[in-house]
Amino acid sequence: xxxxxxxxxxxxxxxxxxxxxxxxxxxxxxxxxxxxxxxxxxxxxxxxxxxxxxxxxxxxxxxxxxxxxxxxxxxxxxxxxxxxxxxxxxxxxxxxxxxxxxxxxxxxxxxxxxxxxxxxxxxxxxxxxxxxxxxxxxxxxxxxxxxxxxxxxxxxxxxxxxxxxxxx
Length: 168
Fold this sequence. Notes:
With about 170 residues, this protein is mainly alpha-helical. It has helices at about 5-20, 35-45, 50-70, 80-95, 100, 105-115, 140-155, and strands at about 75, 125-130, 160-165.
């Protein structure tokens, strides 16, 4: 798995988990908490974490699309189709790997976001363009998204970083 794909999965996981109803409340699901994973284990006994991660990403994608739009933009949960396919394949194949070893608590995921971000910033609430489309799959673009999400969760703001075909 390439470093970019791995970083995208780690960032998605942190944001998906932190945005759940029982934490920041950005999306109305909580598949990635203990009760959610226990219920998923009944229907998806081989990969409850993978199922919960996928379902939470769908909820996050819907909210991001609603706030940002879909045309001429990309964001963490709606990437270029070729990259999206690589991310989803790698995440689903990882059922017993990297994701299972990640801590599932707020403090650990905030620390992971801080690590991915590299520095702390303040971010405005709502959609914020953080680069051009080609930046979305570069390590610097991933770090920029992580900085904004980290700021949003730290400050209690809903932040939606995105990339567009040209500067706004």
